[in-house]
Amino acid sequence: DSGVTQTPKHLITATGQRVTLRCSPRSGDLSVYWYQQSLDQGLQFLIQYYNGEERAKGNILERFSAQQFPDLHSELNLSSLELGDSALYFCASSVRASGSNEQFFGPGTRLTVL
Amino acid sequence: AQKITQTQPGMFVQEKEAVTLDCTYDTSDPSYGLFWYKQPSSGEMIFLIYQGSYDQQNATEGRYSLNFQKARKSANLVISASQLGDSAMYFCAMSLNTGFQKLVFGTGTRLLVSP
After folding, report:
1. Which residues of chain B does A92 touch, with a Cβ-Cβ cutoff of 8 Å?
2. What 8-state DSSP symbol labels residue B84?
3. Given B46, B52, B103, which is nearest A45 (Cβ)?
4. What is the pLDDT along chain B (115 residues), one digit of tens a residue?
5. How far apart are CA A33 and CA A94, in angstroms?
6. Among B30, B102, B97, which residue's Cα sits nearest to residue A44?
7. Which of B104, B85, B84 shows the shortest CA–CA distance to B26?
8. Which 84-113 residues of chain A touch chain B by CB within 8 A?
9. What is the Cα Rg of chain A in Å?
10. Kindly report the CA angle at B3 between B5 and A30, in degrees rounded to 5?
């Protein structure tokens, strides 16, 4: 158990809908990262937050947004869902915002868009 | 830009034998970190081992060791005494020490350990 929690574990929804994925980082970790794992794109970095502020953006679509709250949990919002958004979404956390330090991953949320 | 290459889509090994999973990387930045993660069929990503670009010695964590060859830009994972529970996908990843710490992943290697 990495100490990072993600809910829900599975999500099935229809095209055009909006969903929210939730992540709680390990105790003491200030940095939260979101990754998407899909069959065609592999594991891709989406966005990073550190202590409530956005720090880095990767291949995140405009239909997607995220935030980190004062209690450090984070939410990833996916809207106008398309079939291609079906993927495993991971949240990871680490102590620092920069420099190499291991990121601990949550169990992931498997999103299926029908 | 950083890039990770894992050329072995799948590897087979017998229980109790050692196996090496290959990883090469590309970056022009001199300061970086290299990571290996394991993803079993249940889907979670498990951190295994870390090697810093300035570390003089190869990293080891139990049965895992990282064969770091900086000049060749390779960071191979060696698993000694394979166990059935080692069957999983293995991902090599890197991040730069400067700037933001996103992980860039390779495509992964599926390891199957047979009895």
Report:
1. 45, 103
2. G
3. B103
4. 889 999 999 999 999 999 999 999 999 988 899 999 999 999 999 999 999 999 889 999 999 999 999 999 999 999 999 999 999 999 999 988 766 678 999 999 999 999 9
5. 8
6. B102
7. B104
8. 88, 90, 92, 94, 96-108, 110
9. 13
10. 115
B103 contacts in A (CB within 8 Å)?
A: 33, 35, 43, 45, 92, 103
The pLDDT assigned to B67 comes to: 97
Query: Which among B43, B96, B102 has the least Cβ separation from residue A33?
Result: B102
Alpha carbon distance B94, B73 (integer Å): 12
What the block records as the tokens of B82 is: 């394979």
Contact between B48 and B59 under an 8 Å Cβ cutoff? The reply is no
Tell me if chain A has a CB within 8 Å of the CB of B32: yes
Task: Band the pLDDT of A100: cuts 50, 70, 90.
Answer: low
Burial code (b: 16+ CB inside 10 Å, e: under 16) for A12-21 equals ebeeeeebeb
User: How close is the nearest chain B Cα to the Cα of A85, in Å?
Assistant: 17
Radius of gyration of chain B (CA): 14
Phi-psi region of B108 (alpha: psi -120 to 50; beta: other; left: phi over 0): left
With tokens 């087979």, the residue in question is B12
Cβ atoms B75, B34 nearer than 8 A: yes
Does A68 touch chain B if contact means CB atoms closer than 8 Å?
no
- A6 beta partners: A23
- Closest residue to B32, CB basis, from A2, A90, A100: A100
